[in-house]
From TrEMBL:
Span of the signal peptide: none
PROSITE patterns assigned to the protein according to its UniProt record, in alphabetical order: RADICAL_SAM
Protein name per the record: MSMEG_0568 family radical SAM protein
Domain of life: Bacteria
GO MF terms, alphabetically ordered: 4 iron, 4 sulfur cluster binding; 7,8-didemethyl-8-hydroxy-5-deazariboflavin synthase activity; metal ion binding
Origin organism lineage: Bacteria, Bacillati, Cyanobacteriota, Cyanophyceae, Leptolyngbyales
Sequence ranges assigned to domain Radical SAM core in this UniProt record: 108-345
SMART domains referenced in this protein's UniProt entry, alphabetically: Elp3 (SM00729)
Gene3D superfamilies (alphabetical): Aldolase class I
Annotated InterPro entries: Aldolase_TIM, Elp3/MiaA/NifB-like_rSAM, F420, rSAM, rSAM_MSMEG0568, rSAM_sf
Keywords: 4Fe-4S, Iron, Iron-sulfur, Metal-binding, S-adenosyl-L-methionine
Cofactor(s) named in the record: [4Fe-4S] cluster
Amino acid sequence: MNKQQLITEIQSQGLRLIEPEIGASGRKGGAGPSDHKAIVIDNTTVMVPIFTSASSDSPYTARFDASTDQTILELDGAAIAPIYFPSQPSFYRLTTADGIPYWKIALLHSRDVLATTVLQTCIRYGNTATSCQFCAIGQSLEADRTSARKTPAHLAEVAEAAVRLDGVKHMVMTTGTPNTRDRGAAYLAECASAIKAWVHLPIQAQCEPPDDFAWFERLRKAGVDSLGMHLEAVDPTVRSRIMPGKATVPVEYYFEAFAAAVKTFGWGQVSTYLLAGLGDDLPALLEACDRLITIGVYPFVVPFVPITGTPLADHAPPRHEFMVTLYQQIAGMLDRAGMSSQSIKAGCAKCGACSALSIFESQD
């Protein structure tokens, strides 16, 4: 089995851990992709579902071999490859002067990415008429694993420590959507400015499209290097069913925002999440990706991971065959356009660990 197929399969089917506490602690709930743990396969760090219902039935297991002091990835009990888990970062041991653990302010994602949700609340969350059915932004807050509002000063303090102690290379700042017309851009800009005053660290900001595209230039001047605005799904019917509140922002408005953002941040420095498996068919996803790439937006396609405790907890993840076909086609589009995840200055698409797309991209 080649590396592309292996990672695609394991991200769709998940991984059963024989020793659940191995490696750094996994992430349950919260904003964005969750219920994962980072593993390293053949020098590639990937985020793999481990807390989902699918992973509990996965044919893939990780077993520690005491005789070799290695963790072995197995398929149906047969050894495939040695893997290892990134260790807990050193900055997790620290606390702010007012007693907040650093890990409640920002987390290590993959191997060298610092990630935070600056506002852990969202106007759409908690109301079935508006909430995104895949989202668990409130779970980590309810479990006291994070703070509702990360201050710019705290974020700067944690970012400096993460760079100094753990070699973090770039940072992702996302946000729940506040009840403001800027959709969180103003607070993201404030946070970015504080971080850049403390440490040189490339930053991606993520938010819904603001009402005024002048916010893109304000974000850039504040120190944001790349921008993510996430469609999640492209078919209007799927969007209305899965994310009724967010679907009130039309896809066409996203594309207007994308075009404006590319003018500010540069070609290939704007990206969008597409969650394959929510209901969009292959032609719809490929058409959207082609359109995005044409205007300079990187389509970060990831397999949908059902998160425990959400309305879609029992929704089946996409089949790996579907993902392989999707990755192959998009990698070809990226190659023809001369667009690469590695050219992105910061963010989820640059990291690439929640998807196998970058592996297909590099081996296309």
